[in-house]
């Protein structure tokens, strides 16, 4: 379970109080000293009788929300509160993109406007929007422009944000207006609230389970019969996963992966905005079936409105007597790598999001060293339906569709649909003046396929022979107006930026690929790029490094002239 820091002064590694070294005594500890005012400020902001080390990322968010940045004096004070080294706190604060770490005498950063540089936003003109807002003009107006990773609104590209305010289908004027827009807390009411959900039969299954009318093993068996698979990308059979974790000795925990950061993916956002209680019932059903002691719900930082929404709806569920297990919400901090489940566990524990050596499941290498059930939001969203219908559950698939189509958005379609059928039958076809030339079936990590393969089924295992995968089911549609070389450069720059840096093949490989694609004096050598992709795929620790090779491999295979 989470370790707890103490508020008293730390001792050195020899167990002696500060200032009691060997030989000549020292008047004070080595290193940066705690500022009394900063300590008081940190304690006042966090306002907790006892601070926990696993809450480090949360505390950093609280301090930055209150002060606008993370001063060195704040980090020093927080380190002492948690009895951690300053280095441990500093490395976490500087690992995540959401945090601004500044010296004590540095000026507070101006209002920050982020413009998404994800592929769908780039295709929709985000680069032109950013270029229209020069650095000099931004400074004069008192704001700064930062290019940021995917914001999960790819169907409404291009997107810009400031704090908790988002502008969709943005142009330069709308982005400039963000600088003077008053701050406001994200507030979002779901389309289907608790009463509406219960009117449609919601929570009847969970009530029956909590009342002892259903057996845990029977519920897990029904889920397995339904064929529901993990919808975060890996596709592991959900019922089998529940059964494996339930067979582990207790105590057990559950972690929900809501860090939807794959460029082109926005399904979780859509479902939580519209019908959050279907997800909440699935989450609580899983917690009951596996008999966990606590749930940790990890939601990405770019979805502030969903954090508030979920907090409100979970409170309503608790008031209705249906929340039988504590649910701890944890806030991501802008790191794509934390979508990898073991990196997410590290982040929940208050650490850098560095992937663990596989497999973390279902052994003791779970959250806080305990057996941990890990599911993503969409998987749990469909859990109630899958259990109720068993082997009669219809195998459907949700696709996030963006790019050059008339009607982008989340499309619920039969599993195994082709890209061409999805575009023509559910997205209104291509935009005027655009001809279908290529597509990404699984977002940034799913590879790039030519339109000639658009009649292939998009499902688990069907696209791998072509060097691609359906992954998170994020279909990005390209046309003759999109340069494949530019697409690959965008994707490789994304992977290079988001690499956690833990392993050399990914850290160096992605940077090297970007440098080679940029060209410099020489044109990139296709053989060298192919070798580089092979090394990344074979030797990287986690899926980010493996997937980073996919755009390169597909481009070399299907669009060889695009990279030279």
Helix-strand layout with pairing:
Layout (H helix, E strand, L loop, with lengths): L35 H11 L9 H12 L2 E2 H10 L4 H10 L5 E2 L8 E6 L2 H5 L2 H7 L2 H7 L1 E6 L10 E4 L2 E4 L3 H7 L15 H6 L4 H7 L5 H11 L11 H9 L6 E6 L8 H8 L1 H15 L3 E6 L4 H16 L7 E5 L9 H8 L23 E5 H5 L1 H7 L6 E8 L5 E6 L4 H8 L9 E9 L4 E2 L23 E6 L4 H15 L5 H15 L7 H14 L3 H16 L6
Parallel strand pairs: 1-2, 3-4, 7-8, 7-10, 8-9, 11-15
Antiparallel strand pairs: 3-5, 5-6, 11-12, 13-14, 13-15
Helix pairs in contact: 1-3, 3-4, 10-14, 11-12, 11-18, 20-21, 20-23, 21-22, 21-23, 22-23
Please provide a written account of the structure.
- By secondary structure, this protein is an alpha/beta fold.
- The chain has four domains: 36-102, NADH-quinone oxidoreductase subunit E (Arc Repressor Mutant, subunit A, Orthogonal Bundle); 111-178, Glutaredoxin (3-Layer(aba) Sandwich); 194-391, Rossmann fold (3-Layer(aba) Sandwich), CATH 3.40.50; 401-563, Ubiquitin-like (UB roll) (Roll), CATH 3.10.20.
- Helix content is 41%, strand content 14%.
- The protein contains 23 helices and 15 strands.
- It has helices at 36-46, 56-67, 72-81, 86-95, 119-123, 126-132, 135-141, 172-178, 194-199, 204-210, 216-226, 238-246, 267-274, 276-290, 304-319, 341-348, 377-381, 383-389, 419-426, 484-498, 504-518, 526-539, 543-558, and strands at 70-71, 101-102, 111-116, 143-148, 159-162, 165-168, 253-258, 294-299, 327-331, 372-376, 396-403, 409-414, 436-444, 449-450, 474-479.
- The strands form four sheets. It has a five-stranded mixed sheet, sandwiched between helices. A four-stranded mixed sheet has the order 4-3-5-6. It has a four-stranded parallel sheet with strand order 9-8-7-10, sandwiched between helices.
- Strand 5 (159-162) and strand 6 form a beta hairpin.
- Helix 3 (72-81) crosses helix 4 (86-95) and helix 21 packs parallel to helix 23.
- The longest helix has 16 residues, at 304-319.
- It is globular.
- Mean pLDDT is 89; it is low at 3-23 and 360-364.
């Amino acid at each position: 379970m989470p370790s707890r820091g103490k508020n008293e002064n730390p001792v050195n590694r020899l167990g002696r109080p500060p200032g009691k070294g060997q030989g000549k005594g020292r008047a004070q500890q080595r290193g940066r000293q705690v500022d009394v005012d900063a300590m008081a400020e940190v304690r006042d902001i966090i306002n907790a009788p006892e601070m926990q080390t696993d809450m480090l990322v949360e505390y950093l968010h609280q301090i930055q929300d209150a002060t606008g940045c993370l001063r060195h004096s704040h980090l020093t004070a927080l380190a002492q509160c948690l009895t951690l080294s300053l280095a441990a706190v500093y490395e976490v604060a500087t690992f995540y993109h959401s945090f601004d770490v500044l010296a004590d005498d540095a000026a507070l950063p101006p209002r920050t406007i982020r413009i998404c540089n994800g592929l769908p936003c780039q295709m929709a003109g985000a680069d032109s929007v950013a270029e229209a807002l020069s650095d000099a003009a931004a400074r004069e107006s008192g704001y700064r422009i930062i290019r940021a990773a995917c914001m999960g609104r790819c169907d409404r590209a291009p997107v810009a944000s400031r704090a908790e305010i988002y502008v969709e289908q943005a142009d330069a004027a709308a982005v400039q207006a963000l600088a003077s827009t008053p701050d406001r807390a994200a507030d979002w009411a779901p389309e289907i609230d608790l009463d509406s959900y219960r009117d449609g039969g919601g929570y009847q299954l969970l009530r029956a389970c909590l009342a002892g009318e259903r057996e845990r093993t029977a519920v897990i068996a029904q889920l397995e019969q339904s064929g529901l698979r993990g919808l975060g990308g890996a596709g592991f059979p959900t019922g089998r996963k529940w059964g494996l974790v339930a067979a582990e000795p207790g105590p057990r925990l559950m972690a929900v992966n809501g860090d939807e950061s794959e460029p082109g993916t926005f399904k979780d956002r859509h479902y939580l905005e519209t019908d959050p209680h279907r997800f909440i019932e699935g989450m609580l059903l899983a917690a009951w079936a596996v008999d966990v002691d606590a749930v940790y719900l990890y939601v990405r930082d770019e979805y502030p409105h969903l954090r508030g929404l979920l907090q409100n709806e979970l409170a309503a569920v608790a008031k209705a007597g249906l929340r039988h297990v504590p649910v701890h919400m944890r806030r991501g901090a802008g790191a794509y790598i934390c979508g990898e489940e073991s990196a997410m566990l590290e982040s929940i524990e208050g650490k850098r999001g560095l992937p663990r050596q596989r497999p973390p499941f279902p052994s003791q290498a779970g959250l806080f060293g305990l057996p941990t059930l890990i599911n993503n939001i969409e998987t749990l969203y469909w859990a109630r339906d899958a259990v109720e219908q068993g082997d009669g559950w219809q195998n459907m698939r949700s696709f996030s569709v963006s790019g050059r189509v008339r009607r982008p958005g989340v499309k619920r379609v039969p599993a195994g649909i082709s890209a061409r059928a999805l575009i023509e039958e559910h997205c209104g076809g291509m935009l005027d003046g655009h001809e279908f030339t290529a597509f990404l079936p699984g977002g940034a990590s799913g590879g790039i396929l030519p339109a000639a393969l658009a009649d292939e089924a998009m499902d688990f295992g069907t696209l791998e022979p072509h060097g691609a995968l359906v992954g998170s089911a994020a279909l990005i549609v390209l046309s003759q107006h999109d340069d494949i070389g530019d697409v690959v450069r965008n994707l490789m720059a994304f992977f290079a930026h988001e690499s956690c840096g833990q392993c050399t093949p990914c850290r160096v490989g992605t940077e090297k690929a970007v440098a080679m694609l940029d060209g410099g004096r020489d044109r990139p050598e296709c053989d060298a790029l192919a070798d580089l992709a092979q090394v990344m795929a074979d030797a990287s620790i986690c899926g980010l490094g493996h997937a980073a090779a996919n755009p390169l491999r597909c481009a070399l295979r299907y669009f060889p002239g695009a990279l030279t």
